[in-house]
Amino acid sequence: MSLYWYTPTPKEHLNSGDQKRVSPNNMANRVFTVQPSELKNIKNKVVVITGGASGIGLATGKLLISLDPSNKIGIIDRSPPPPSFASASNAHRILYQKCEITDWKSQRAAFANIARHYGRIDAVYANAGIAEYGDQFFDETMDASGQLAEPDRRVLKIDMDAAADTVRLAIHHLRKNPEGGSIVITASLAGYLASAGAGLYSAAKHGVVGLMRALKQDTKKFNIAISVVAPAITKTPILVGNREAEMNIQSGVSTEDAINQWSEKMSKVGVPINTAEGIALAVCHLIDGGMQRNGAGYLVQADKIWDFEAGLAKSREIWMSKEMLDLFRGGRSAPLFTRVDDPKAKM
């Protein structure tokens, strides 16, 4: 199926039944879906996926392997992917690197091993992450000394700090390629619309969106496209952290069944649910588009995609006001921070 999307304009307000078929090159501010047959540029690619042993990362790895027999992937994770994935026919195309993602040296070594094994890296999907881990703001737990206990910051360490490390390593390897490459980071709907009850998770996901925005002009100088994919609720093992799903597992229900039961319950009350495969298609669409996708932010709900960043850019005058936007534009060229030199300017 081709891409379908719609957009309201000042002169024409379209409803969801008025979708228009348009060119895939005109992506701004559209709702669309992707089919594997449309991903024609992902061939002979070496793609690194952090958190690639399960969920969205695993689904993305499977899609990449299926798209073309020349594609290869490096999986960086604490646990290996399922044995069924690395079958005899695919074993030479899948390299697993055991890694503690929050340890810089461990992640650096994993990247180096993948680059050495395949000779290069063409794209990186920074996907490793966890959900909110308990209440870190209103819980009154005391430590051994009777003082308020230090909060558990593992969500920030994994979802923000380690993701930033992944991006740094990605830039290091991709800038070696004359043709550059692509970086995709897993953000979340909570990275645009914060989720009550998930303060640190929302902060971390807002952080990676901000990281992408801050880097996109400089990565472009090296032909490196950087973007985010922002899934809403998705059927993956990360939902095990949901209290109801966790209770079902403790009562003897399998993890997969617990996730399916909770997702089905949420779907019945109107919550849009993604599949891991739907997010994988969005990720690969970002990679497939190369520099055309630099700065994109794909919001995904019910496996439908919208470029949040394009929508925000087009509506700045609405959410900033014209006066504030003009003030911002007036000082935009000021050298407030040190910028990366464009290597092409030295040639």
TrEMBL record:
<comment type="similarity">
    <text>Belongs to the short-chain dehydrogenases/reductases (SDR) family.</text>
</comment>
<dbReference type="InterPro" id="IPR036291">
    <property type="entry name" value="NAD(P)-bd_dom_sf"/>
</dbReference>
<feature type="region of interest" description="Disordered">
    <location>
        <begin position="1"/>
        <end position="22"/>
    </location>
</feature>
<dbReference type="InterPro" id="IPR002347">
    <property type="entry name" value="SDR_fam"/>
</dbReference>
<protein>
    <recommendedName>
        <fullName>NAD(P)-binding protein</fullName>
    </recommendedName>
</protein>
<dbReference type="GO" id="GO:0005737">
    <property type="term" value="C:cytoplasm"/>
</dbReference>
<keyword id="KW-0560">Oxidoreductase</keyword>
<feature type="compositionally biased region" description="Basic and acidic residues">
    <location>
        <begin position="10"/>
        <end position="21"/>
    </location>
</feature>
<dbReference type="Pfam" id="PF00106">
    <property type="entry name" value="adh_short"/>
</dbReference>
<dbReference type="GO" id="GO:0016616">
    <property type="term" value="F:oxidoreductase activity, acting on the CH-OH group of donors, NAD or NADP as acceptor"/>
</dbReference>
